Input
Amino acid sequence: MRTRRGLCCRKPPSRTNIVLREALARPEQNPVPKGASFCYSPVMLKKSSAIFALLLGLSLALFAASPARHSSAHARQVSDAPRPLYYTREIKPDDLYDRSLRELQLMRNTIFARAGNKFRKKWLNDYFSAQPWYHPLDTMDESKLTALDRKNAEIIATFDAGISREQLMARQGELQGAKTPEDKIEMRLVAIRLGKWAGSDEDQPTALEDPTLLDKQLTVDQLKDFSRRDLRLLRNLIYARRGRPFHSDVLKSYFQAVEWYKPDPKYTDARLTAIDKRNINVILSVENQLGGPLTDYQNKKEDGWFARA
Output
């Protein structure tokens, strides 16, 4: 039997072609452009575009409404990135953001260690003595301190001094039960700034970390780890406990973070106890052995009263 040409080899129409033919048969309902190679009508495309635009708008709105989340992500990125302690360029805010007090002290003192400065504080001396580049000198070679070094020391000092009491108290709470040597150093530094010890007596705090120890007679041996700056702070801590107001920018900046400090315009030295007076004399004797008490000018000459430990 003869068949029409091509009849036996023609494939059955696909479901897609059937849908397309039905759409072409009803142009007033589902108009399809001539030569179209798809089965979606313009009406469907318009609906899809509207849905896509709506989802995109919602995504952008959620992104814009969550700055805290992006700030946290940025903070983690900044915090997790390895950052040096010494910079050969001007220090920027991101270089200091989220640094511990210990890191800030290391940053400041690295500047002076490179010039051969010796350190009375044991933890600083231990740290720098382990650095192969550190060569302590009897007298620091100030010619090695560049203008950039001094400017960076001032930037670090300003940032450090700007840490609020609330931030320090929050950090002190996080350090409860500190186990690592680094955390224990941090706990001591926070205590000095707050004028309040929150650790264990087994850690043997100094009088600068726990001012209640000033109720007893100090010994010279207890001050062997103190720098001239620390000795000045400790001596004035005795006066601060009795309400003495300070005109020194250095001392006012320090004591503003101390919770218990209440300056009294009516203060007189008559408020000092016999123990207070003896402790002041002990501290002064150590200061004199180290070249005399620091003045505000000398502190500021070091580019910020926090510039060198």
User: Anything to note?
Assistant: The CA atoms of residues 124 and 130 lie 10 Å apart. Residues 1-9, 64-76, 302-308 have pLDDT under 50 and may be disordered.
